[in-house]
Each structure stands twice: as C-alpha cells, then as structure tokens.
Amino acid sequence: MNSTNRFAVDPDELRNDLDHSLGLPASYYTDPAIQELDLKAIYRRNWQYVGPAASVSQKGDVMVAVAGDVPVVVTRAEDGELHAFVNVCRHRGYRVAEENRSKCRALVCKYHAWSYRLNGSLASAPGGNEDISFDKEKLGLLPLAVDRWGDAILVNVDAQSPRFTDSYPGIEEDAKAIGLVLEPGRYRFHRESIHDVPSNWKMWYDNFVECYHCDNIHSGSFSAAYDSDIKTVVTKFRNRYMFNQFAPKSSKSTTELRANNYRSFNIFPGFLYLQQDDLMILSQMRPTGPETTRQTVHYFSENGAGIERVEKWIELWEQTFTEDGNATAIQQEGLRTGIMDRNRLLPPREQAVVFFNRNTVDAYGRYLDPTPSAAAAE
Questions:
Q1: pLDDT mean over 203-219
Q2: 302 and 193 within one domain
Q3: Structural domain count of the chain
Q4: Which of 123, 142, 164 is the last residue of a domain?
Q5: Which listed site, 42, 86, 93, 260, has its alpha carbon 20 to 30 Å from 245?
C-alpha cells in the first residue's frame, strides 16, 4: 500500500470477511477517519445525481448542489453547452452561486465581485489589472465532469472521468430491458423532499438496497403496495449497480395504491432512479458527517397522472423513507457502543448488502493502491 493508507484499512482482509458473511467493522460507521476515506475514495471518484435535467435545459440556467462534500454549480452556457464547476471562487473560496437561477448572464462572487462566465472562464476581477502577474486565463472555475442520463443531471468530481454510461458498462441495455424510460417528456418535476438521517451513509445504504426488512418495517407503506417477498422480486447485479422489479401486492392491504411496472436502479454510491405508474423518483444520498446522512428526493409525476393520486404515492414513499431513517438511527446507536465488532450478514436474504459493501471495499482498494496491477486484480 502507498502512503495514502494512513487509514489502517486492509481491503483484502475486508473482502475475506465479506466472503465469510461478515460486514464492515462497527468502527467504519462512526470513525471520522473512515468518513474522510469514504469522501475521497468514493464520493470524489464516482458519478452522483445533483438535480433534474429540466433545471438546466435553457441557456442561462444555473443549478446549485453538493456532490459528497463538494459544492457544485451546473450551468447551461450561452453556446448551449452543459458545464459543471466547483462552486468556489478562485480568489478566497466564497460561493459564486447561491441558488438555482434562469436567464443568468454571469456567476458573481458576492464577497469581492469576481465574475465568471457560464463556461467557467474568469470575466473580471476588480483590481486585477494592478497586479502584473495576474493571469485571468488561468483562474477560471475548477471544472467537474457532467453528464445527463434520462431526466438526471450527474457530476463527477474527477473531471477526467469517463462519461456516465461508460463508467457503468451495460447500464443502457439493462435500462431498456426493464422498460426504464429515459427519453425526456414522460415525467415532469413535482417536488423535492430532504431527509436528514442520524446514521452513517453506509448504514443507510445497506438498509436502502435490501428488502429483507420490508415486511417488518414497511408493512403499512412500501410492503402494502408491493410484494416484497424475496422469491418474487427480480434483482440483477452488475458492476457498481443493481436493478429491481417489484410486482404489485395481489392481496388486500392497508392501501389501494398499486403500480404494475415498478423498476429501479441503485447506482453506487447512493443514486436511485425509480419509475412506476404515476411517479418517478430520483434520489441521491450523501454523507454529511461520520454519523449523519442527507437523502435528497425529487418526485416527478407521470404525464396524465392525477395529482391526488401522485400525492398519495408520495405520502407512501415519504412514510417508507422515514421508517428507514428511524430504523437506521436505532442501528447506529447500537454500533456506536462498539460492543458488537461487526454485523453477521445473511447473504441469501442480503445479497444486495454484500454487493454494495464489496463495492465500498473495492473503492478503498483502488484509492489506497492505485497501481494498474491492483486495479486489474479487482
């Protein structure tokens, strides 16, 4: 391992633990050092959803977001090109965009009035001409990789990253196979919901991808509308993403809501792309601290869907997400004690948990030992 392995992490040992149905050590859900590793090894090296494509569809549109711990601004420049940058002025680090805007002509830092074009180049800096070494050409906003997939705008802090679909080979074919609609116009943005969860993002993610718990925790919400029996759920695993298809509940339950064509992708790390009758959900989770997570949920209504029914679906999903947050908060309390060294997983029911834990460990390995031979071994 190189000098970056000051985190005392051994990916080979962690992979061996997973092979024996043992989860990550309990300290990995509480340790600030592991939080730093998660941000550097995972969230600064993978694509993340930051907002609806419609928010930056016109020239002059500006969207602000956060990718992991990095503030982001996405723009549609005057030439129609899509751009993304670190939302930090090159002068003293103040934000250059405060909120989503339309018909914007420039990004102006309110601290000292440095002004940037929507393509990221520095337009002006008050007093810059007083410094003979000042070179505006070298002081544009720091670029990020940006892409669109269906109704989602995604960014990667690694500006040299391959395009989104190249980073997840086969995803377009899999999306087509399960009927995910990626052409614009089928759904329109309805509203945003934010869930701040008092648990580590990996804890939240472990819960998010498996339905072993659904009949117990979500009997009056998700499992009332869908058949969550593992024997009926169609789940496929690929490289850093998985996709599901759930059948509607066939028996009487606490809700009359049913959707005949639920299909979803969970894309590492933390991006959910879900479509069903009446509704689409785009969601991104990100760590906000060693023991806190923020899930941003964007709800879209399908064209022709009744608003009352859409609101009922949103109510059901909001109840589901709240129940998930309450469950992971209790788990976080248990692991925080350190009394239990780690989880003992049940792979036949928790294959998704093992899968995404392995993605996490592999990301650690690539970061800590970035040699070509190490990457090939994975």
A1: 91
A2: yes
A3: 2
A4: 164
A5: 42
pLDDT value of residue 322: 97
Q: Output the average pLDDT for the chain.
A: 93
256-291, pLDDT tens digit by residue? Answer: 888 888 899 999 999 999 999 899 999 999 999 999
Q: Which residue has the tokens 């061996």?
A: 16
Rounded CA gap, 82 and 155, in Å?
11
The reply to whether 174 and 304 lie within a common domain is yes
Task: Give the bridge partners for 192, in sequence order.
Answer: 298
CATH number, domain with residue 213? 3.90.380.10
pTM of the model: 0.93
Residue 149, Cβ neighbours under 10 Å: how many?
24
In percent, how much of the chain has pLDDT > 90? 84
The yes-or-no verdict on residue 1 having pLDDT over 50 is: no
Query: Which domain, by its residues, includes 145?
Result: 48-164
Which domain-ending residue is among 111, 138, 164? 164
- Residues 26/140, Cβ–Cβ less than 8 Å: no
* Token code pair at residue 199: 């648990």
Kindly calculate the radius of gyration of the chain based on its CA atoms and give it in whole angstroms.
Answer: 22
Choice among 4-13, 339-348, 350-359 with the minimum mean pLDDT: 4-13
